[in-house]
Amino acid sequence: MKYLVVNESDEVIATKERGELLPTDIVRVSALWLTNSQGEVLLAKRAASKKYDASKWGPAVAGTVEEGESYEQNMVKEIQEELGIEIAASALRPGPYHRSHGRNEYFSQWYFATVDLPIESFTVEPKEVDELRWVSPAWIAEKLASEPDLFIKTAPASWPKLLSFNLN
Fold first, then answer.
1. What is the pTM (predicted TM-score) of this model?
2. CA nearest to 30, candidates 68, 86, 70
3. Are 34 and 42 spatial neighbours (Cβ–Cβ below 8 Å)?
4. Contact criterion met (CB below 8 Å) for 59 and 135
5. Which whole number is the average pLDDT over 115-124?
6. Taking the CA atoms of the chain, what radius of gyration do you get in angstroms?
7. Which of 11, 83, 121, 138 lies 20 to 30 angstroms, CA to CA, from 25?
């Protein structure tokens, strides 16, 4: 699979295989903040085998945009692959879009969606996810403040903004 490499204006300038990406290459990432009608947020614990943020809690779904995909198309595909459910593009609500710097360089497009499914309804990809959990926004806020190492590296900086959005 080839990933899109973009410039500082988020314009595609190249495609590269994962192993060809340089630390300075900017890619596109889509992520999902999934809630239920009770206002809980679905978190995914990244697989222990992951190179980065192994065994850390992250968003329900996240993925790098591949050649031939838009942010939205990538999100629909990643939901199916990582959770084993289908959410139509029309049910995705665009959320924050921003540029991130650090270990990786990327533009990130967040999406919001709401589903009422028990954990048992999801089929996770074991290479991606070790565990799913519905949690309250209050639990997330408290744990971000008291135990930020439970979460992916970017969570303490970006998730408070997501918690402040009207998710339903």
1. 0.91
2. 70
3. yes
4. no
5. 95
6. 15
7. 83
